[in-house]
Amino acid sequence: MNDVTAHQSTTPLPKHIAIIMDGNGRWAKQHGKLRHAGHRAGVENLRPIIRATADLGVPYLTLYAFSTENWRRPSMEVQGLMSLLAEFLDHEVENLKNEDVRINHLGSFEGINPHLAEKISQAVARTRDCKRITLSVAFNYGGRQDIVTAVKQIVASGVSPEAVTEELISAHLSTNGVPDPDFIIRTSGEWRLSNFLIWEAAYSEYWTTPVFWPDFTPQLLKQAVADYGNRDRRFGGLNAKP
Ligand code: IPE
Ligand code: IPE
Ligand code: MG
Predict the structure, then answer these.
(1) pTM for the full model?
(2) Alpha carbon of 124 to those of 93, 104, 181: distances in Å?
(3) Is 138 in the pocket of ligand 1 (CB under 6 A)?
(4) Residue 22 among the catalytic residues
(5) What is the pLDDT, as a whole number, of residue 8?
(6) What pLDDT, in 10s, does the model give residues 217-234?
(7) What is the DSSP string of 12-53?
(8) What CA–CA distances, in Å, run from 212 to 69, 84, 194?
(9) pLDDT of 125 higher than 80
(10) Residue 12's pLDDT band (boundaries 50, 70, 90)?
(11) Which of 37, 43, 19, 26 is CA-nearest to residue 194?
């Protein structure tokens, strides 16, 4: 904690951290359990990490929970993931609201059971006025699909080609209103985006750890944020640190 606190005085904190919560299946295997048990352990890790992010003073957190490609998994696993989200929302929305967490959903409701879609909409509505941190849950989210949806909306609106700008495209993505992620963390040691925030991540800093998501701790989060503080973000320019 002290390291990070000391750090804050010299280097800005990321405004937006996005996490690819990977490795639930491998965690389960390591513990001789079913994959579903790994996903459950992963869900149990949400609260401590959301709280730790808020405590650091980071105002935006995005969690990748289910990708548009995750439908390729066996239907039992997919159904298990849907149930876990429903359960999480049933149990945690009130707590998150009390902690002043605004819930936002990234992705589509296509293929999602209407009861679950309703729960997600309600969670968003109930926490609309919360201010401490915006928690975006990417569920049934794919970066490419999000861009396709945006392009469809833009074309349907009849704008002229000259009016198409980066800002216009950003405004039609489901991340509209959320700043681009400064820092993307992926657990379980993989080095890829897996279709996560592919437009928004143009200049994100990247960090990975071999630790599986259920074992990812607030301490590791702080370590990651401290590492972020040493990055030299140039955005194509030359403002290198001395
Ligand atoms: C991440 O864990 C959770 C989801 C993708 C829903 P995985 O289920 O991908 O775990 P591994 O990669 O198989 O270990
Ligand atoms: C990315 O993890 C999606 C989520 C964490 C929700 P995957 O486990 O699905 O990614 P790949 O298939 O290994 O790239
Ligand atoms: Mg995985």
Answers:
(1) 0.95
(2) 9, 6, 20
(3) no
(4) yes
(5) 43
(6) 999 999 999 999 999 999
(7) PPPSEEEEE---HHHHHHHTT--HHHHHHHHHHTHHHHHHHH
(8) 20, 18, 16
(9) yes
(10) confident
(11) 19
Q: Backbone dihedral region of 21: left (phi > 0), alpha (psi from -120 to 50 degrees) or beta?
A: beta
Stretch 88-115: mean pLDDT, rounded?
98
Ligand 2, atom 12, residue with closest C-alpha? 194
- Closest residue CA from atom 6 of ligand 1: 66
91 falls within a domain:
yes
Residue 68 CB partners (closer than 8 Å, separation 6+): 107, 108, 140, 141, 142, 144, 145, 195
Q: Residue 134: inside a domain, yes or no?
A: yes
Ligand 3 centroid from CA 34, angstroms: 14
d(CA 202, CA 187) in angstroms, rounded, equals 20
Rounded distance from Cα 22 to ligand 2 centre (Å): 6
Nearest C-alpha to atom 13 of ligand 2 is from which residue?
194
Reported confidence tier of residue 5, pLDDT bands at 50, 70, 90: very low
Task: Identify the band that residue 4 occupies on the pLDDT scale cut at 50, 70 and 90.
Answer: very low
- The verdict on residue 46 lying in a domain is yes
Q: Is residue 194 part of a domain?
A: yes
What is the spatial distance between Cα 180 and Cα 53, in angstroms, rounded to a whole number?
A: 17
Residue 29: CATH number of its domain: 3.40.1180.10
Expressed as residue numbers, the domain containing 59 is: 14-142+181-226
Q: How many domains does the chain have?
A: 1
Say which ligand is closest to the CA of 137: 2
Q: Is 214 helix (H, G, I), strand (E, B) or coil?
A: helix
Strand pairing category for 183-186 and 101-106: unpaired
Select from 85, 91, 145 the least CA-distant residue to 120: 85
